[in-house]
Amino acid sequence: MKKLFVIAFLFCVQFGNAQIFGGDKIINNENFDKQRWSWGYYLGFNTYDFKFKYNEEPTPNGNDFIIEKTMGFNVGLVGNLKLNNNLDLRLEPGVTFNTRNFRPPYTQDIEEINATYVHIPLLLKFSADRHNNFKPFIVGGLSTSINLSSNENNPNVDTRLRTNNYHYEVGLGIDLYLYYFKFSPSIRGVFTINNEMVETKFPSIDAMRSQAVFLNFTFQ
């Protein structure tokens, strides 16, 4: 997963360098950013982790909990409102799919946590001025998600997670203006604000919050 992120990031950097320093000065989609509204979609990958708050500190003999992370998939839509030349308001509703393997201490038993989230972020995008066919940006905002795989109301499972959760997000990316469309690779951190755990059989855990990394490829 880390290798994939690194390869994708290096590809974007290399592509951006070619746009900045290359000899080709043809300006693609010159009037794209003059639109008040623009629309698009994104595809991408994710990896989810849990951050635990313990009732007592883990000791060196390993009484903390282990999350074995896997690669997930993102897909969604983009609605963009231009506020000024360097600031946009974006709504990016989508769906994310992920599996985490949850392993308690002192055991090799693994509890598989499958999650399908309807993820709805409202973001502010701060962009630098466009240079040729290249424009870097940073993005941040708040989001909510609905866990369609939630077991919040199921008393027969060991760990019950909430259906509705709230997050803040920060990230960075690059707008690349191609001949027919704008392509925007970005990487983003998503951090849950509320305690996702309703109940667990492990008394040492006081709270569980998701942390995720999204690698998205947006087409507008």
From TrEMBL:
Q: Where is the Outer membrane protein beta-barrel domain?
A: 35-196
Q: Which domain of life is it from?
A: Bacteria
Q: Which UniProt keywords apply?
A: Signal
Does the entry feature the keyword Signal, yes or no? yes
Q: Which InterPro entries match?
A: Beta-barrel_OMP_2, OMP/PagP_B-barrel
The cross-references to SUPFAM superfamilies, in alphabetical order and at most eight, read:
OMPA-like (SSF56925)
Signal peptide residue numbers: 1-18
The identity of this protein, by name, is PorT protein
Q: Which organism is it from?
A: Salegentibacter salarius
